[in-house]
Amino acid sequence: MTRLMLGRTLERICKAVLLLCLVHFLIMMILYFDVYSQRFDIFSRFNNGRNSSSSRTHPFYNLSRPNATFAGYLGTMNHIPSAHPEANVTSTAKPVPPCPEVPSGLVGRLLIEFSSMMTMERVQKENPNVTEGGRYSPPDCRAKQKVAVIIPFRHRDNHLKYWLHYLHPILRRQKIDYGIYIINQLGEDTFNRAKLLNIGYVESLKEDSYDCFIFSDVDLIPMDDRNLYHCYDQPRHFAIAMDKFGFRLPYAGYFGGVSGLSKKQFLKINGFPNEYWGWGGEDDDIYNRITLNGMKVSRPDVRIGRYRMIKHERDKHNEPNPQRFNKIQNTKNTMKRDGISSLTYRVVQVKKYPLYTNISVEIGKPPPRPMKG
Ligand code: UDH
Ligand code: MN
Q: Distance (Å, rounded) from C-alpha 174 to C-alpha 130?
């Protein structure tokens, strides 16, 4: 008798457990489909009528890449239609929120290497959301600033492929509203980095109402995506810890490699000098202009401002400028007359490529050296 009762009790317990499992399963299913439908709602919000060029091929995002994130992957999927078409209608009416101060999709330290083969086709496939001329704006939020990234350039096509391969995904994760401008010096006269940067400032402003200008060498790749490519209260120096300098600032007043100034900061110093022909000194002159005009240089944390430079030999026609040491002593006198106010050049061609705008320019050549004696 007691055995029978024990059996029945056990049977009831089993049934209750089974029932509990079933209820648990049902709840899980409901939750799962709820999250799933929300995800489609997110896609529809991403769509928001901005990137409506959905004629593009199906995007892919290689999650095995060192700087890939699932958030980035979701970002590339913004052409996927919503499961609820009516949700699209209401969401397009919603204003996009301002972008967060610290974007949530950042991954921090990045693995940067230059041994794998890079082709422009590959980089284009990796970045289907970048629009013609190398333009991008975050689809899900409103960026505070519009950033023109300006690169001085001549005969560095291989470096440019790596730069685009690494920087586009980084800038996308940073939720930057940006355009990429390659300022290409035509001819074989002496290279003039700072003059090309001035030209980048003027020419990018003809394209859009940029309020922040980031000036980057083509061979410098940030090793941490927390080094945010926008402008700050003071002129910004981004490339403070390069591999070639042992991941340290080479000297306190160093301002080379990658820097950023708002329109106001740039105009306050009359832009950059046009009279530094050949390698060196122009970055020190810019640093002098900043401090002489009562501003300070702002920098990221040394652990975050790390950079890799693609190894290279010295270019032809960019030999060290022997006059640079003298010139940087005179910034106070020269900055008023030499700068954005005295800039002259000739644009030969503006060409929009899928991942950047190329502006080819003639900038003249250095004045003849005065005869000795
Ligand atoms: N640049 C060009 N083409 C040139 C020269 C310079 O595109 O012919 C641009 C490019 O964006 C480059 C930047 O100007 O990243 C700065 O020039 P750089 O890279 O030559 O300067 P860096 O200080 O090199 O890196 C100095 C020469 C080091 C030689 C070391 C040999 N072991
Ligand atoms: Mn270099």
A: 14
